[in-house]
Amino acid sequence: MRSSNPVFSRRGFSRDNGYAGFNAQPQAGGPAVGTQGNPYAGNNPYAQNPYAQQDLQYGAPPQAPATTGRMTMDDVVMRTATTLGVLVLTAALAWALLPVDTANINKSYGIAIGAGLIAMVLGFVQAFKRKASPPLILAYAALEGVFLGVLSSIVDNYIASGAAMQAVLGTMAVFVAVLVAYKAGWIRVNRRFYGFVMAAAMGFILLMAVNLLFAVFGGGDGLGLRSGGLGIVFGIIGVLLGACFLALDFKQVEDGIAYGAPREEAWLAAFGLTMTLVWIYLEFLRLIAILQGND
User: How far apart are CA 156 and CA 146, in angstroms?
Assistant: First the structure.
């Protein structure tokens, strides 16, 4: 199942095995294994195991993530905790060391925008790399933390007091709620779910891009999609889309572990989950700013 996350949807976990989102056909001469017990088995290409050939080389069945060199849930948790830890640390340092008082706010804001743009570039570089690069992923997290730290400080000090903590709590609540709902089977991640989320996400991003263009060339908030009543509506939609992204990412990780993805691919899972959580946090931050401030 391909995730809506730009990292996962680009190529799944392993390009070296001809794998992109669990819809790759088995390599020449390789059996189509891993379909038993798979709800997408049959004619659905999602049922193919992208690591079938690799499993034969290891001499182990595909449902054996404990095999040496295979990704496990512990690997994903540890890498995600490390990536998020770097992000939170740099965000806290940026909050403390880059003042947003009247005399320094322009300088701090400029540094934050620069860090955010570099982080975006690093994110695209990692998304198109053949393999996960831990230094690149951690550098992305550090720069994203600088951006979020200054932006959160500005919102917290000038627009809505306590907004940053509320956004953090909201993000954590969404993560836990989606995880519980996913594990309980209340969210069924299938092709229809994937198609709906992708269509909604593309429409949302297109509208935000148009709104940004109108804001840049026309001034103000463009079409008004990110302020006032419409801003609240689109903020809620953004949070819901982030929740859907999490469900897709959980499915991606679960399938990767079941199919025996290489251990280093856990860094990609951490990278993708971090990007999704940043999305949700930013949507919460804007939503709270609108509700409590004068955005």
Answer: 15
